[in-house]
Write a structure and sequence with these properties.
By secondary structure, the chain is of the alpha+beta class. It is built from three helices and nine strands, in the order E-H-E-E-E-H-E-E-E-H-E-E. Helix 2 packs antiparallel against helix 3.
Length: about 140
């Protein structure tokens, strides 16, 4: 596994799909899988007005790096990008992007799903949902 095959970003700036795509693109790969998480306007039939993401930065970045390394070991992929936002986001904004390139699509899809599922389970990033009638912390423990 080469560190130059991994891009990890935890930022308060807007995420860029093209940046992730450009990082993983390689002439040896026949498939690129992208997962783009977006802020939706409803959760359990309640109207969402915005989300707020907080993290324990150093540990979150370390866990994201670990997920990327595991994906490279577990799946036949070449590169992986895991980018996540901290701070307030509005409806339609992008809090997370996972991009994976592989010689074949099946590995790209599997690694992409593994990365987002594992991120949601293990990375210390917390989400507060704001509704028209209040707010609630979601997944308050990784």
């Amino acid at each position: 596994m080469k560190k130059e095959n991994i891009s990890i970003l935890l930022t308060s700036e807007k995420l860029n799909i093209q940046t992730c795509y450009d990082f993983v693109q390689d002439s040896s790969c026949g498939g690129i899988a992208l997962f783009v998480g977006t802020v939706r306007n409803l959760t359990k039939e309640k109207e969402v007005t915005q989300l707020d993401f907080s993290s324990y930065g150093p540990m979150a970045e370390k866990e994201m790096q670990k997920i990327a390394a595991q994906a490279l070991e577990k799946f036949d992929i070449l590169k992986i990008a895991i980018h996540h936002v901290e701070g307030e986001l509005n409806i339609g904004d992008i809090p997370v992007i996972i991009a994976v390139s592989a010689p074949h699509r099946k590995a790209a899809f599997a690694a992409c799903q593994f990365a987002i599922d594992t991120l949601k389970e293990t990375v210390p990033i917390w989400k507060k949902e704001h509704f028209t009638d209040g707010e609630v912390w979601v997944n308050s423990t990784p």
